[in-house]
Amino acid sequence: MSWRTRVGATIVSAAVLFAVTARAADDPTVLKDLTAVIALQGQPCGQVVTATKQADNDYVVVCKDGSRYRVFINAEGRVVVQKQ
To answer: What is the pLDDT of residues 32-72, one digit of tens each?
Structure first.
């Protein structure tokens, strides 16, 4: 296999992996759950429109009103919502 073919295959594989991860974070069920978590923490949001997964149980979300939050589970196992 030539060098160019290997590089091309690597780029395509990385793009597919990224697309699958991005789709999972924008799953309507995940967006609804994140909206509920933010509301239960008493933060204004309305509705989460996008979520970017940073790690397991760690998301950066953008709300319909333009607010941005980081939603994650801390070392003690508690859900934390930080305004960004």
So the answer is: 999 999 999 999 998 999 999 998 889 999 999 999 999 99
The dihedral sign for the CA sequence 6, 11, 16, 17: positive
Q: Is the pTM value of this prediction over 0.90? A: no
Which two three-digit tokens encode residue 29?
A: 């069920």
In the chain, where the domains are located: 3-83
Q: Which own/partner pairs from 22-29 qualify as long-range (CB within 8 Å, at least 24 positions apart)? A: 22/52, 24/53, 25/50, 25/51, 25/52, 25/53, 25/59, 26/50, 26/51
Give the span between the Cα atoms of 23 and 62, in whole angstroms.
15
